[in-house]
């Protein structure tokens, strides 16, 4: 049981360190600490108290150990179902109304209070009474966890691994802790170790590779946010330095050009024009970089996303290559409060990327629709697609798959990501190499 204690409390601490502000994470950590309390109760009863008998602990010390064993055991048996249903209600809040979520903790704890106040003794656990409370509560929590629905592929995969790590282990341990003891099979909790170890293995794999309770998504977003902040400040300094030096170059090239014209030196004048052109090119480049990395200030206003995209579709159709078939599906009206300019620029960036991915032609599909929580825009193409290795990096500033283009700085998608973060939304890229790419942006309603 010592291993169970270490595993559960370690995972609980890891979750709290990663994202302590999220209610579902806090309740899951509480659930794990309650489970660890059961392991601690077993360690006290199986190890510390027999050790005290052998080495002559005082009666008062043995009494305190026994009291601690009972308290931690009660915390496990009554705490696990309660913390699990509370976690589930925050993990999938759309299944419960606001009033039901407020009443839920009182409704779940009322039977516990009745059992503790009326049934004596409270320990050992009165399994035949507790089972009629614990099993329905755990089953309801499992239903809430499994019924969560995600529109983003990355979050769907994250949810699958979260559910795989939590639900089977919880159901198995509930059978061992409550159901079988109600029929006289006591001490079955000792077989929980293997289910907990398996859940821990799934957790370790998920947290580093696929995500658990949105943890990997959170880490990815933080890394991108740090990169964007560094990029913003870095390019601001770079822009200032280059602008000053280019200004000096222009001042002296004007003087030299005037001197070359006065002294009739056409070759020198031609050389000066080359230098001026190069300086102008540098200015243009740094202005383009600064335009996509500067801190954005949103100017929100109510708008209809369908109308915005309809206008954009007319602009795109003017320059659309004959080899590209475009389809715009707008499920309107789609009311939204957003920065119209940044919204248009974001979708325009995604459409341009899709068109650039189809130099030989293909199909462009733009779809806008609403879900209960989001207003969604999907931009899909049938172009060359993105490899798995590149897909992991496409949101990084200055990373580009279009290395052949000297006018592409790899800032388009990071700019789009930045805009969506400022709108409290998200951006997700799915792609199959050789088959096409779908970029989805979600605006909160």
TrEMBL record:
Keywords: Kinase, Transferase
Domain of life according to the entry: Bacteria
Official protein name in the record: Sensor histidine kinase
Organism, as annotated: Paenibacillus mesotrionivorans
């Amino acid at each position: 049981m010592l291993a169970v204690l270490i595993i559960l409390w370690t995972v609980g601490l890891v979750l709290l360190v990663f994202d302590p502000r999220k209610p579902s994470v806090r309740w899951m950590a509480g659930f794990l600490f309650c489970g660890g309390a059961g392991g601690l109760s077993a360690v006290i009863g199986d190890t510390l108290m027999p050790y005290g008998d052998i080495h002559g602990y005082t009666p008062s010390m043995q009494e305190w150990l026994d009291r601690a064993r009972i308290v931690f055991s009660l915390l496990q048996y009554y705490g696990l179902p309660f913390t699990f249903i509370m976690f589930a209600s925050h993990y999938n809040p759309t299944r419960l109304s606001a009033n039901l979520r407020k009443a839920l903790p009182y409704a779940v704890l009322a039977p516990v209070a009745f059992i503790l106040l009326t049934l004596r003794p409270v320990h050992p656990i009165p399994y035949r009474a507790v089972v009629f409370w614990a099993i329905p509560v755990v089953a309801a929590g499992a239903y809430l966890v499994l019924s969560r629905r995600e529109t983003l592929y990355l979050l769907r995969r994250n949810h699958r691994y979260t559910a795989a790590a939590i639900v089977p282990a919880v159901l198995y341990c509930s059978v061992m802790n409550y159901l079988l003891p109600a029929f006289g099979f006591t001490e079955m909790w000792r077989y929980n170790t293997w289910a907990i170890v398996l859940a821990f293995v799934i957790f370790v794999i998920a947290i580093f590779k696929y995500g658990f309770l949105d943890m990997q998504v959170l880490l990815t977003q933080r890394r991108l946010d740090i990169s964007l902040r560094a990029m913003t400040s870095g390019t601001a300094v770079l822009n200032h330095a280059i602008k000053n030096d280019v200004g000096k170059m222009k001042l002296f090239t004007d003087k030299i050009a005037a001197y070359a014209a006065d002294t009739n030196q056409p070759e020198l004048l031609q050389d000066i024009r080359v230098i001026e052109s190069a300086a102008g090119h540098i200015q243009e480049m740094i202005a383009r970089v600064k335009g996509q990395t500067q801190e954005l200030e949103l100017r929100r206003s109510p708008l209809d996303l369908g109308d915005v995209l309809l206008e954009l579709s007319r602009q795109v159709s003017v320059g659309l290559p004959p080899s590209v078939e475009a389809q715009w599906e707008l499920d309107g009206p789609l009311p939204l409060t957003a920065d119209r300019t940044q919204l248009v620029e974001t979708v325009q960036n995604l459409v341009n990327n899709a068109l650039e991915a189809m130099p030989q032609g293909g199909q462009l599909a733009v779809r806008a629709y609403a879900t209960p929580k989001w207003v969604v825009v999907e931009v899909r193409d049938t172009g060359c697609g993105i490899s798995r290795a590149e897909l992991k990096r496409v949101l990084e500033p200055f990373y580009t798959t279009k290395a052949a283009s000297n006018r592409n700085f790899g800032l388009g998608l990071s700019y789009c990501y930045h805009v969506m973060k400022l709108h409290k939304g998200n951006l997700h890229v799915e792609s199959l190499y050789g088959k096409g790419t779908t970029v989805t942006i979600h605006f909160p309603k």
